[in-house]
User: Fold these one by one.
Assistant:
Number 1:
Amino acid sequence: MVPRRVFFTKGVGKHKYQLQSFELALRDADIEQCNLVYVSSIVPPYCKIISKDKGIKELNAGEITYVVMSRNSTDEPNRLIGAAIGVAIPKDRTSYGYISEHHSFGTTSKKLEDYTEDLAATMLATTLGLEFDPDKAWDKRKQEYKMSGQIVHTQSVAQTAEGDKNGLWTTVLAAAVFMENDGC
């Protein structure tokens, strides 16, 4: 199986049991109906990024679904938790891209998104044998990275939440969900 499409989703759940809070986060992300298989972080050549809405509509209950997932949980009141996924795709679509996942405590959603995009772009650059400094390579006006003349598309999704004030388990997740078919 080589995935042809991928979409990104996120969710948060709260419950007195940690496992149930994870289930509620999966429901919030609209992927609870699938048998999730965790995979590492390669985006195949020609894999198209699609919208969450389009991807969710094509999922079937019980299907084996490959995901790159970041998740985090706490039962500490008011503790900020986060989970994020970042992706870096080279302009040359015959090459593969990278997905990074990261979870944290005390980090805002925007910082998590930036961090996972930088991480994915750095992993891609090292694979391509390129020197890369995310701070110097980012073109703020065009909102893209440039690596030795190669333009790289990045994007991310992050979910943050504060631990429930009454000590319920709070779980956050962010996921890249791979789809095998090409949607035809």
Note: Residues 5-179 form a domain with the Pyruvoyl-Dependent Histidine Decarboxylase; Chain B fold (CATH 3.50.20.10).
Number 2:
Amino acid sequence: MNIFVSNLSYAISDGDLRQAFEEYGEVSSAKVIMDKFSGRSRGFGFVEMSDDEGQKAIDELNGATFDNKVINVAVARPREERSDNNRPRGGFDRNQRGRNNYNNNRY
């Protein structure tokens, strides 16, 4: 079972996450997801355990306090594929000038 853990303290390491879940059974892997640019934790991670042990860990740890933060623990869902149409757009669009009260005071 793949378990999603969110609202983790930025100080939590893979080893800390593994140790917290080992109380409920054998942990195949524990990984805190890191930002690829800053190298800092993104505040969530994944733990792999057997189904029975994993469900027990979810039931016990969801809403628990871990390193002074209340964590959310649930069964991980597969990532949804995003089409290019649903991808957020960034940058400046000349046709959208004034939309965010920018240039609204021009005469």
Note: The first strand starts at residue 2 and ends at 6.
